[in-house]
Amino acid sequence: MKTNATLLILATCLLFSCAKNPESYLEHLEGYWEIDEVTLKNGSTKKYKYNDTIDFISLEDSLTGVRKKLKPNFMGTFETSKSSETFQIKIENDSVNMYYNTPFDSWKETVLFANKNQLKVINKNDAVFLYKRYIPLDIN
C-alpha cells in the first residue's frame, strides 16, 4: 500500500511540473528576436545562419502589443520603416494567441514556448518559427 501512495505522489508531482503555464510566456515576449529555424507543415526545416532583419516585439499592456521589422547596422542601431503590426493577446485553451489585423490581412500566431532565450510560434499555415534572442554584432 505504501508503494501505491508513493507512486500516486510521484505521478501527481510529474503531472504538475510538466503542465505548462502559458501566461508565464508573456514576460518573455518583449524584445529583439531573430529567426533561428522554420519547420513547415510537411516537416521540412530551414535553418537561418544569417538574418538581415529582426523582429522587435513590444507589449503596450497585458493584452496588446506591437511588432516591427528592424534592420541592424554596424553602428549598433537599427533602420526601420514606419510600419508596424499591432496585435491583441488572448489566453485561450492553455495557449497564448496573438491576433493581428492589418488593412491587408488578419491572422493568428500561437506561442508554443517562450523563455529569455527562445520564442517558438506557429502561424495559420502550421509553420513553426523558432526565434532566438538577438545579440548585436560586436566588431570591436
UniProtKB/TrEMBL annotation:
<protein>
    <recommendedName>
        <fullName>Lipocalin-like domain-containing protein</fullName>
    </recommendedName>
</protein>
